[in-house]
């Protein structure tokens, strides 16, 4: 289970699928209020296509337009440390570092642009970006272009799966409600980020509580995970649902490690994927080949280890491996 639906609302709305740096995020993060496919440029991999093309082993696998431009434009929501967040004007984190490893194989620049999570797939379908890499859970609904009610809303996307994460339950330091699992949330109030798979997870858990005859679970959804964190810190909600590496990072950093604790629900691991337009199978397959090469040469592992995210490593690329 992981975080981050893709419909846009006039107000700003991660399987799965947090502010720039979690410790700062709780105090109040910069909100990107754009809708549609508006994004904010913030970072790119260091390797340039023109300089690296001749030596990159997988450059020839890329589509001709990307070979020519030397750039893969990446949509992301850079408010999700340690996966992707802003350090000054630069977008850093697990995903940009994995992208840097892929760039060495492909010989092009991965140019990250930040926008609100629930508009990222729109930026892909309109052609503003070539891929989405934003801790996005690979789900069959996203693959098929279905909304949360199962209605067809688009053509869907293909995913190149590159990371595995489970649900993290973020609670106040000391865990005053003694939360150990999702079932312990029955009768409690949650805070979650809007448009993520955790908003759906909250709905599913509420239905389970009712089915099991337990007290009612309620939740509120917020445009950013930073706002959900603030709600938990203020006592307005018992917990925030998040991806396990993100919840762990927040617990380690927010308030100097004094604000939160993270409980991992390791039984529901799901896959993050790089989203690619279904018509662009050549780019999809080039990314999969680059990921396999980065796994083989160790640069993928190094990118994860830098952020203490090695538990989420996959052993090979997979296309549309989500559930």
UniProtKB/TrEMBL annotation:
Q: From what superkingdom does this record's organism come?
A: Bacteria
InterPro entries assigned to the protein according to its UniProt record, in alphabetical order: Solute-binding_3/MltF_N
Q: Name the residues that span the membrane.
A: none
User: Which positions fall inside the Solute-binding protein family 3/N-terminal domain?
Assistant: 71-311
- Which keywords does this Swiss-Prot/TrEMBL entry list? Signal
Q: Which Pfam families match?
A: SBP_bac_3
Q: Where is the signal peptide?
A: 1-34
Supply the name of the protein: ABC transporter substrate-binding protein
């Amino acid at each position: 289970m992981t975080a981050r639906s893709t419909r846009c609302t006039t107000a700003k709305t991660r399987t799965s699928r947090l502010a720039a740096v979690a410790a700062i995020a709780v105090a109040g993060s910069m909100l990107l209020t754009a809708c549609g496919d508006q994004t904010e440029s913030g970072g790119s991999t260091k390797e340039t296509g023109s300089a690296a093309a001749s030596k990159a082993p997988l450059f020839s696998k890329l589509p001709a337009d990307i070979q020519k431009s030397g750039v893969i434009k990446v949509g992301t929501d850079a408010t999700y440390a340690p996966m992707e967040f802003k350090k000054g004007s630069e977008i850093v984190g697990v995903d940009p570092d994995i992208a840097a490893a892929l760039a060495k194989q492909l010989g092009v620049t991965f140019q990250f642009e930040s926008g609100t999570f629930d508009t990222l797939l729109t930026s892909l379908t309109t052609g503003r970006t070539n891929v989405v890499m934003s801790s996005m859970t690979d789900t069959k609904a996203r693959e098929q272009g279905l909304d949360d009610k199962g209605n067809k809303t688009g053509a869907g996307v293909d995913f190149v799966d590159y990371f595995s994460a489970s649900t993290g339950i973020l609670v106040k330091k000391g865990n005053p409600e003694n939360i150990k699992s999702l079932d312990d949330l029955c009768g409690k109030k949650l805070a979650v980020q809007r448009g993520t798979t955790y908003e759906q997870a909250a709905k599913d858990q509420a239905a389970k509580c009712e089915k099991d005859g337990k007290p009612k679970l309620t939740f509120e959804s917020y445009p950013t995970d930073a706002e959900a964190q603030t709600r938990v810190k203020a006592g307005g909600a018992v917990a925030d649902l998040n991806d396990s590496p993100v919840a762990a990072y927040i617990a380690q950093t927010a308030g100097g490690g004094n604000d939160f604790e993270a409980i991992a629900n390791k039984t529901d691991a799901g896959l993050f994927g790089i989203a690619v337009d279904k018509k662009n199978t050549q780019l999809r397959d080039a990314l999969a080949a680059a990921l396999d090469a980065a796994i083989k040469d160790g640069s993928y592992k190094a990118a994860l280890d830098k952020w203490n995210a090695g538990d989420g490593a996959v052993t090979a690329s997979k296309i549309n491996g989500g559930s």
